[in-house]
Amino acid sequence: MIRVLVADDHHLVRTSIAHLLNAEEGITVVGEVADGESAVFQTRRLQPDIVLMDIRMPGIGGLEATRKITRGMDDPRVLVLTAFLEEAFVQRLLDAGASGFISKGSQHDEMVAAIRSVFAGQRYISPEIAQRLVLSRIDGQENPFDQLSHRELQVAIMIVNCQKVADISDRLFLSPKTVNTYRYRIFEKLGVHSDVELTHMGLRYGLVDGFASIE
Question: d(Cα 49, Cα 31) in Å, to the nearest integer?
């Protein structure tokens, strides 16, 4: 039996995926979570085989949660579930320990196949995401966020997803002064002057869903 933990901050998406997966032979959903911290905590508590991980979630988000979950040899495999993913973030997630990527636009059968493949120790990248990666290489497009350090990217993702400095400070165990230092360093590297400009750039390069910036 493949034990799956579903991590997605949208309740309807999360519960729908859980319902569909529980109907599959040989797969059972052992838990559902809505943020990165809960994904890490429930992974340690429930010990699933696969964590189906959304990237854009409140708190530390899917990237840092993936990094924390996949630290050991016997830890569960992470299958990233995303609506939009740039090449730069694919590499970051692979470095963080992700075993595969599947688009939210994929059919149910493909998600099941991806879960089974990752459980078997194989890597899986959905055709839609693979095609975008190939096209981005052909076009020679550069992602400005690729120049950020891991911590800078983490802070940038949290800013464009409408998290305040105080919230980022609490969740990352950093002082507000340190968070602001990262914030201004991000502005300097990306050539932006405000959180609004950073959010617009984040929308363009897939750090945030189109509707998330107005929630």
Answer: 12
CA dihedral angle for residue 35, residue 41, residue 46, residue 48, rounded to 10 degrees: 60
Q: What are phi and psi of 125, to 5 degrees?
A: -130, 120
Q: What is the pLDDT of residue 116?
A: 95
Q: Which residues have a Cβ under 8 Å from the Cβ of 102 and sit 6 or more positions away? A: 79, 80, 81, 82, 110, 111, 114, 124, 126, 129
Average pLDDT of 111-132?
Answer: 84
Scanning the structure block, which residue is given the tokens 């975008």? Answer: 132
Q: Strands of 2-7's sheet, edge to edge?
A: 27-33, 2-7, 50-54, 77-82, 100-103, 124-125
Task: Give the angle subtended at the CA of 157 by the CAs of 151 and 159, to the nearest 5°.
Answer: 105
**What is the predicted pLDDT for the residue at 135?**
53
| Structural domains of the chain, with CATH | 2-138 (3.40.50.2300), 144-214 (1.10.10.10)
**Which of 194, 193, 178, 182 is closest to 156 using CA atoms?**
182
Give SS3 for 35: coil
**Intra-chain end-to-end CA distance of the chain, in Å:** 38
Mean pLDDT, rounded, for 35-62: 90
* Residues 79, 97: Cα–Cα separation, whole Å: 10
